[in-house]
Amino acid sequence: MAVLLYNMFNKIITEDSINKVKIAILNSSRIVIVTHVFPDGDAIGSSLALYHFLIKLNKSVNVIVPNNFPVFLEWMNGAKNIIIGNKEEFIAHKFIQLADLIFCLDFNNFQRIKQLHFYIQQSKAKKILIDHHPLLEHICDIIISYPTVSSTSELVFILIHQIGMSRYIDRNFAECIYTGMMTDTGAFTYNSNKVQIYFTIKELLKEGINKDVIYDNVYNNYSESRIRLQGYILYKKMKIIWEYRTSLITLSNEEQQKFSLKNGDTEGLVNIPLSIKKIIFSVFIREADDCVKISFRSKGKFPTNKFAFEVFNGGGHSNASGGEFNGRIEDAAILVEKMLPTYRHLLTN
Ligand code: 5GP
Ligand code: MN
Questions:
Q1: Is 98 exposed, middle or buried (0-12, 13-18, 19+ CB in 10 A)?
Q2: pLDDT tens for residues 190-216?
Q3: pTM recorded for the entire structure
Q4: Beta carbon of 322 within 6 Å of any ligand 1 atom
Q5: For residue 309, which atom of ligand 1 is closest to its CA?
Q6: Domains of the chain (ranges plus CATH)?
Q7: Which of 108, 112, 183, 313 has most ligand 1 atoms within 8 Å of CB, for mutation?
């Protein structure tokens, strides 16, 4: 009965796509999984879950990311084997060259994989996209794109279920899927009202995951300096622009060095100002290695991805998006403030 209900809720991927993916997997032996720059819990979760599944099918599999992932995801099984593109470019290139199948997870625009983009586009391998961002371009041979699904990880779970290979899933796989589902919904506090999410979690629990431990690993694993940085930012750096119900935070390289920040230490800071009554738009701007990185979050209907796209050529989801700026961090902040009046109708009612 449970299986029957599960099938009813989750058969969202078309039969045509399912058949094509099945054939592509069966006909391949060397598989590469690639995900977006500044990989988050969903990017790493979906990639490692698929990795565990494909290993069980005796495939040779490599997960490649454009740059490093947060320290709080290092506990995940398989994380040690991830190839970091900007540190191991030669190896990344070699595996992409040798691959006969490439999965592109949690992005749908090749700019999102930085330097890996050139190698992926040169490759003759079949390419499968699995993603939940609004789709702009058909960049792969097979497209599994469902923006209504709250995480790519859940989509990977649904895919494996629909291709009829759920017998190959195990606890490692389930832990990775849960991590991605949890991090893309703020531990099921937003974008998380679909009933199918909880049917999926039920299946994951049956594989033996400990969801409380996973929460602890991800959210209670910060360094002392990260928590001190949080205090500093909220006390000294958060600018509230009440007229536009907006919060704006900037964080320079110098400030990051002062707090000896590690990879991922700034994740989640952008969400905090949304807990202020009446603030509906939060912007967090920080200096990264080769650009200024901007994160946007909103409560309710304000479409941050529209702002991200129109002002910074970025993208993402309505309530969570991002972009990059080539220039001084101060100028990125000035640009945000200058553009707010253009969105007055969306920010003030
Ligand atoms: P974050 O602020 O956590 O880096 O990203 C939030 C969301 O926006 C994620 O879904 C991520 O994929 C998307 N995103 C972040 N930065 C960019 C960007 O520069 N371009 C696009 N298209 N999407 C982005
Ligand atoms: Mn995602």
A1: middle
A2: 999 999 999 999 999 999 999 999 999
A3: 0.96
A4: yes
A5: 22
A6: 2-219 (3.90.1640.10), 224-347 (3.10.310.30)
A7: 112
